[in-house]
Protein: Aldo/keto reductase
Amino acid sequence: MIDRRKFLKTGSLFTVASMFFSFGGQKLFALSSSKSIPNTTLNNGIKMPFLGFGTYSLLGDICVESVHQAILSGYRLIDTATIYGNEEFVGLGIKKSGINRADLFITSKVWVDDSGYQNTLKAFNTSIKKLGVEYLDLYLIHRPRGDVKGSWLAMEELYKQGKIKAIGVSNFELPQLEELLEYAKIKPVVNQIETHAFYHQHSSYKNLKKQDIQLEAWSPLAQGRNGLFTNKTLAEIGNKYGKSNAQISLRWHYQRGIVAIPRTEQKSHMIENLDIFDFELSDMDMKTITQLDLNKTQFPEWR
Ligand SMILES: NC(=O)c1ccc[n+]([C@@H]2O[C@H](COP(=O)([O-])OP(=O)(O)OC[C@H]3O[C@@H](n4cnc5c(N)ncnc54)[C@H](OP(=O)(O)O)[C@@H]3O)[C@@H](O)[C@H]2O)c1
Structure:
């Protein structure tokens, strides 16, 4: 069951925000309009929002309500995966929002257990059924394990059939990407990898730019690990602009040309995380954040 008290608390914040809008508040208008989220153009010409909504670990009513509220707040990119076990709930949240399918950018991912040509075709069909959609905007190989080539060929086939608008990979290191590029007839549009203020992914960042493959950051807030939300350096930068550590982190991703998909169950955080397009970090701020790089994962248990 959904934690109603938590939603009432955060929901009331949204009510205040809505009142602000109804009194002509320009700033909120910018927040609640998806038009305020800029797009990147992928290497196949498809447009993808630079900021989206992550759904890892959101389940049941909490997931339905979070996705619904995220869409109402202005998010259009929704990131899920078979392994999250929540595609059905994500689909219900989308349905509840009443939004036009064409206005959304929905990503899912094929899990390791479903690698290989036939398994991937089957997994894709299960995913769209659970999500209640006819096509995906982006489908990713979640991890480079098992029969990656078979999965990729199946994804190319689905892409040709128009059932996926764009295909890509996740958690691919450079050699794994090189190997895929040797047989791929269609180049991946995205590599979704762990990237945040403490892990800048310098070599992948450079290589993906060179290859014209969009870097998408998973755990763009490092799930708050290593004290991201209280980090002094981020806070000092944030004080100059009246922004939180989360907002500085997300703005930093955007200025590096990275797509970020923060997750939150809280309406106030959904709104806060969207409010990053009205200021610009200086070159000096960007350099200062460079010094936070620990050049290693914050999620060793997922390796
Ligand atoms: N491809 C992959 O292998 C892979 C791996 C991991 C994640 N992902 C994707 O990336 C998405 C994002 O990563 P993630 O979910 O691991 O972590 P994340 O987005 O880096 O962090 C989520 C955490 O940050 C908190 N938070 C969010 N906004 C906040 C704010 N403004 N102030 C304070 N706290 C805030 C959330 O708590 P509250 O709910 O309390 O706000 C939550 O605990 C996932 O949901 C998933 O879609 C993909």
Observations:
- The pocket of NAP is lined by residues 54-56, 79, 142, 170-171, 192, 218-224, 229, 244, 246, 261-266, 269, 272-273 (CB under 6 Å).
- The radius of gyration is 19 Å.
- The beta strands are 39-41, 47-49, 52-54, 77-79, 105-110, 136-141, 164-170, 190-194, 214-218, 259-260.
- The chain has a mean pLDDT of 91.
